[in-house]
Amino acid sequence: GAVVSQHPSWVICKSGTSVKIECRSLDFQATTMFWYRQFPKQSLMLMATSNEGSKATYEQGVEKDKFLINHASLTLSTLTVTSAHPEDSSFYICSVTNEQFFGPGTRLTVL
Amino acid sequence: DAKTTQPTSMDCAEGRAANLPCNHSTISGNEYVYWYRQIHSQGPQYIIHGLKNNETNEMASLIITEDRKSSTLILPHATLRDTAVYYCIVRVAGNQAGTALIFGKGTTLSVSS
Questions:
Q1: Do A102 and A95 meet the contact criterion of CB atoms below 8 Å apart?
Q2: A23 touches B at CB < 8 Å
Q3: Can you give the three-state secondary structure of chain A, one letter per residue?
Q4: In this complex, is the C-beta atom of A93 within 8 Å of any C-beta atom belonging to chain B?
Q5: What is the pLDDT of residues B51-97, one digit of tens each?
Q6: With b meaning 16 or more CB within 10 Å and e meaning fewer, what string describes B32-65?
Q7: Cα gap A2→A4, rounded to integer Å
Q8: What is the pLDDT of residues B26-64, one digit of tens each?
Q9: What separation in angstroms does the CA of A28 have from each of A74, A111, B1?
Q10: Spatial distance between the Cα atoms of B40 and B28, rounded to a whole number of angstroms
Q11: Of B31, B33, B41, B50, which has the fewest beta carbons less than 10 angstroms from its beta carbon?
Q12: CA A9 to CA A96: how far, in whole Å?
């Protein structure tokens, strides 16, 4: 199965700053990766589908200009939270492959 | 994808079998039953999946009823490390690229000594 890493594992930032989260597929070339977020005591919510070499597909209610996704290679997708605010504090998780192997998640806290 | 219904929470004593039910009465013929779990503050972990036959691997067993409208995930000897949220998801086979998983609320399994 695919091994997926995320960096950083946790980040604290000030309101108004931008934060980049990386998702790497270590042993699998992924044309598609998925980004989820999870608020405390809630389930995972799909944010967007990241497609290598093309634009990401965002779920309804997710602002594409706020959550910038770049999938420039078959092993790396990045999610940039622009002008982060406290309500963006969440657990961000990526996944790859059809069997949906998941990264360990990134805990974002916006002060 | 078909909707699933799971109990909100379950308790299990360490060393005993944990049986987690899932109802998926609207499942289609080409949809599989997948199980994942999420330990606190970690990404979800794939456990097992099946179409209609019972399946077993090193982690668990999956029992699917003959009419496929429900299934049970069995952890034969639960340990404290099995405490997690367990998600039952019904979806078309994983060989179709580009389809994300849709998570419900899952079952919170608490294993105690």
A1: yes
A2: no
A3: CCCEEEECCEEEECCCCCEEEEEEECCCCCCEEEEEEECCCCCCEEEEEEECCCCCEECCCCCCCCEEEEEEECCEEEEEECCCCHHHCEEEEEEECCCCEECCCEEEEEC
A4: yes
A5: 999 999 999 999 999 999 999 999 999 999 999 999 999 988 655 54
A6: bbbbbbbeeeebbebbbbbeeeebeeeebbbbbe
A7: 6
A8: 999 889 999 999 999 999 999 999 999 999 999 999 999
A9: 8, 36, 26
A10: 32
A11: B41
A12: 17
Q: How far apart are alpha carbons A56 and A47 in whole angstroms? A: 10
Q: How many residues does chain A have?
A: 111
Structure tokens at A93: 């998780």
- Rounded alpha-carbon distances, angstroms, from residue B7 to A44, B72, B87: 17, 12, 10
Write the pLDDT tens digit of every residue in A74-100: 999 999 999 999 999 999 999 986 666
Task: For residue A32, give both structure tokens.
Answer: 């598609």
Chain B positions touching A25 (Cβ under 8 A) are none
For residue B36, the distance in angstroms to the closest alpha carbon of chain A comes to 10
Count CB-CB contacts under 10 A for residue A10: 11
The residues on B that touch A, with CB distances below 8 Å, are 36, 38, 41-46, 85, 87, 94-106
